[in-house]
Design goal:
The radius of gyration is 15 Å and the shape is globular. Strands 1-2 form a two-stranded parallel sheet. 36% of the residues lie in helices and 7% in strands. It contains three helices and two strands, in the order αβαβα. By secondary structure, the chain is mainly α.
């Protein structure tokens, strides 16, 4: 939805429609390496890939990749591991 008049919900609907009957992979463009929310939303909605503009270093690559993987490889979850409360 970056540089598009579509909302996140509309872009998800379009992605779902294309993906259901068509083998064409859907790629989503995000705001950049620090667009954690956009990267997570793209992967949550089933994008085959995420296009990340303005990558200028290896650190930018790592920053953009972390939200695509669950711990311990990344930090995709917004909540840390929590123990069950004692009864």
């Amino acid at each position: 939805p970056i540089h598009s008049p579509l909302s996140q919900l509309e872009s998800f609907g379009m992605q779902t429609a294309v993906g259901d009957g068509n083998p064409t992979p859907v790629l989503m463009r995000v705001g950049g390496p620090s667009d954690r929310s956009g990267i997570q939303q793209a992967t949550d909605t089933g994008a085959a890939g995420v296009l990340v503009p303005n990558v200028r270093s290896a650190d930018d690559i790592l920053k953009a990749r972390r939200p695509t993987q669950f711990p311990p490889a990344g930090d995709r979850s917004l909540f840390g591991p929590m123990r069950r409360a004692p009864e």
